[in-house]
Amino acid sequence: MPTSVPPLTCAIIGLSEITSAPATPSTRGGRSPLPGSHAAAIARIPGLTVSAICDMNPDAIASFHQRWDSCWPDMRDYTDAFEMIGQEAPDILAVVTPDHLHRDIVVAAAEKGIPAIMCEKPLATSVKDADAIIAACEQHGTRIQVDHTRRWDPFFHQARLLIDEGRIGDVISVTGTLHGPRAMLYRNGTHILDLMHSYAGAPPTAVSARLEPGYDEFTAYRGDGGHLPSSEPAASAYIEYANGVRGQYNGLKGEFMLVEWDVIGSGGRIRIGANHAELYVHHPDLGLAQVPFPASVIMTGGIQGAWEDLIAALTDDQHEVRSTARDARATVATIDAILRSHQQQGKLVALG
Q1: 349 or 222: which carries more pLDDT confidence?
Q2: For a tag on the chain, would you pick the N or C end, based on fewer CB atoms within 10 A?
Q3: pLDDT at 32 exceeding the cut of 70
Q4: Cα distance between residue 257 and residue 298, in whole Å
Q5: 213-238, pLDDT tens digit by residue?
Q6: Beta strand segments in the chain, E
Q7: Which of 84, 126, 75, 131 is nearest to 101 (CA)?
Q8: Cα–Cα distance between 5 and 159 in angstroms, integer?
Q9: Rounded to 5 degrees, what are φ and ψ at 188?
Q10: How many CB atoms lie within 10 A of CB 282?
């Protein structure tokens, strides 16, 4: 990944904390490297400048200026996303709006000819909207990255490399667990499903699922941008993949946070979460034995890694981003299948 880039400009739509929070020391423990916001990541990439910002809330704009004017004193302000797209010509547009607003903004940006887009996850809240985004970006040659952040986290990415190298043999099953007050299907479940799909190594093809009690009428996204946990259900799902891998998605609302992935292969196992990364291999005498997890000493934060990856694709036509729109569509289609399966009392349904 580049540590510096040719002079490039970016504009940002949506100034919530995931966009604007400063990089501050963490007291929570764990091993996740900073920075944890888009602005803090951009500030660490020499040559990349924020030229314009947009939010419907003037207070959010004022707060962003207070935090970041020392880095980018000449930022232009907008309260209308489409006005910004019409007036500005950035090299990269960051779309950090509520989930259901991505489609129209990304399509307009692609039609305007903006070269690259950083889109927050999920890509969209329906398969139809995801397909519209993909079609617009492919038609107009816009490079798009979807911010499924753990794909660039050095530990989660190392787990993917270990799988690709065959350290645990052929993957047989992948289990993703999301437990906590915000175990919401669209808001945080997208992270779990995306990494499950990546570790499985093939597209998901069918799903059998049930939503948490009280959400029988939840047939399509009707969240509030991720603010209230009650706006989205948790879910439990069985997932089949094209290569025969079996997946289990465990989404459970509760008081404490537990987020982890468990990958079982024919010759070993990887168990990984925010505070642990464990590698087990099969030994002919000892059975399943834990061995050191070969972690990288390079600790670039996931969001910064996503930006550097997109910049590499923008400056090199042969570079493919790590989180493509088609990857992200698979997660949207899985959620859609979860909702359809619930309506059919857990019947196994094919992905659309």
Answers
A1: 349
A2: C
A3: no
A4: 27
A5: 999 999 999 888 888 999 999 999 99
A6: 8-13, 48-54, 76-78, 92-95, 116-120, 143-147, 171-179, 204-211, 235-241, 246-252, 258-265, 268-273, 277-283, 287-291, 349-350
A7: 126
A8: 28
A9: -115, -20
A10: 15
Long-range contacts of 140-143 (CB under 8 A, 24+ apart): 140/110, 140/111, 140/113, 141/115, 142/109, 142/110, 142/113, 142/114, 142/115, 142/116, 142/117, 143/115, 143/116, 143/117, 143/310, 143/313, 143/314, 143/321
Percent of the chain with pLDDT over 70: 95
Sign of CA dihedral 76, 77, 81, 83: negative
User: DSSP per residue over 114-142, as a string?
Assistant: -SEEEEESSS-SSHHHHHHHHHHHHHHT-
Other Cβ atoms within 10 Å of 122 Cβ, number? 29
- Taking the C-alpha atoms of residue 7 and residue 43, their distance in angstroms, rounded to an integer, is 13
The least confident of 12-16, 176-180, 219-223 is: 219-223
Averaged pLDDT of the chain: 94
Give burial (CB, 10 Å; 0-12/13-18/19+) of 253: middle
Show the tokens assigned to 271: 């168990």
Mind listing the domains of the chain with CATH numbers? 8-150+300-324 (3.40.50.720), 152-298+332-350 (3.30.360.10)
> What digits encode the pLDDT tens for the residues 194-209?
999 999 999 999 999 9
The pTM assigned to this predicted structure is 0.94
